[in-house]
Structures are given as C-alpha cells and as structure tokens.
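Researcher: Next sequence.
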Amino acid sequence: MQASRINEHIYLIDTETAGIRNFIASYVLKGKKAAIVETGPTSSIPNVLIGLRQLDVKPENVAYVAVSHVHLDHSGGVGTLLKHLPNAKVIVHPKGVPHLAHPEKLWEQSRIVLGSITELYGEPQPVPEDRIMGTTDGTILNLGNDLELRVVETLGHASHHQSYFEPLSHGVFPGDAAGIYLNEIGVVVPTTPPPLRLDIVLASLDRLVSLKPRSLYYSHFGKAADANIRLLNYAQQLKLWAKIAKQGIDGNEDVETTSRRIVESDPAFQKALEYVKMRPVLGETVLNHSIRGVIDFVKKFGTVPE
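Model: Next structure:
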C-alpha cells in the first residue's frame, strides 16, 4: 500500500480493500489541519492508518472525516477509524447521521443486497453522535492555509449523497455522483443501483458542471482531468441507458435482453466489460445493480429524462 501525491495539498491512499488495488480511494487534505475524504469499509482502515503515517499526518491533527454517503464502501470504516483520531468530526448529509450512529440496520440491509461482498468489507462500527456533523449544501470546512472543502448536495445515487468542492485546485470529490472511473483503462461506468432517481442524478451532475471543476477525485478511483467533459459525457451515458430501457419496457422485453442491449449499445461499457467481469465486486455492482437501477427507474416513472 502506498500513499501518492495528487498536488501540493491533496494525497490519495489506495485502501486496497480485500487486496483489490485501484478500487477504493481515501483522500487526505493537508492544511494547518487535515481532513480525510472517504474512508472505505472497515477492512480498509489498517491501510488508511498506514497511509496517514506515510504522509506524516498526526492523528490529533485530523479535524474532519468527510464521507459522500453511508454505503459501506464509502463510509463503513468511519467508526473504526475515529477511534484513532481523537479530534476529528465526521461530516455527512443529515439523513446519513442515524445510519452512522446506529449502523445495525444498514449492515443487515447491505448483507441482503450485497451478499458475500459484505464479508470483504466488514461490519461497520457505530460513531458517537456527538462526533457527527450533519452538514447542508454550502457548508464550508476550513483547514487553514487557504485550504477548504465546500459541501455540495448531490442527491440521486442515494437520498443523502453529497460531494465536496475544493477551490484551490478547482477539484470535486464526487463520491458516486459521477460514476466509477476505471483509471487503468480510462473509462467511466455508471453506479446507479436501485432505488434510483435518475432525474435527480442528472440534476446533481448539472450542479457539479456549474462549478466548472478542473479535476474529479473519484472514490472509485483516482484523479481525472477534463472534469466538465467527463461529467457531461456521464450524463449522456445515463440518458442512453434510460432510452434503451424505455425501448425494452415498451417492447415487453425481459430484463436480460434489455441489459444485453444496454451493454452492446454503450461504447464505454463495451471497453470496460472484460475489466468488470474479471473483478467480481464490480461485476456484481455494475453489471447487475446499476443496469437494474436504470430499468427500474424508467419502469416506475415511465419517462426518460431530457
């Protein structure tokens, strides 16, 4: 495991969850105080702690642990990590607060949805409520040395999803709002599990575009330039999936046929297909859950967002 430098104040720790590289990133911002964006699941925390030592970040200097949402692969390790960070507050959307404080229901639901993948992630530990800050859109976290994080509400992937804008680099930490970046092959694939509100996802992408970011710091995985082009292309990719889903529903296709046509019609996904199939976690979450989320949305709402 190796921490790497993104720029003069942002660093990436590859959490190597379950030994999988280039899958889940935890970012460290170093001003007068430090902040961590995304922790990965519980099983990632030993590597996160190694990364903090490599970066010479003292545990007592970490002021914030900011997570995009409470899905296990993004924040499952918060409770475990916080035991090592005596002064840190956890930053999350207000709707995420009870799930971090009392994660038992989240764990059981995750086991139903993700099956054996949850064993790779590990069970989340509760976070003391007095250490959680439920933040709203526009909240600014000041780290000193002109470094700050600005909360940007980006609902859709989850009803409690938020991203973070970093003005010095004009960079965005999008969580799952902008898809999964397969940095080894330069392709973005959707992360749209049910229950999905695709219309809200697209509105959130518009919000990120309006920030005119230069870089995206993907939780899955790594830094990517040409941020606005990637955000706009992702929106078009989702609209393509929804259009094909609508055709399938109108034609009384079964889900398997519609899923196959989505894969065959998306050049980016075609490029990523073998990569995804070779990685069981991605194969399950992207091939099955993401396609199903789009199909279910179109079936429920009967429309394809413009």
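Model: The mean pLDDT is 94. The CA atoms of residues 263 and 273 lie 8 Å apart.
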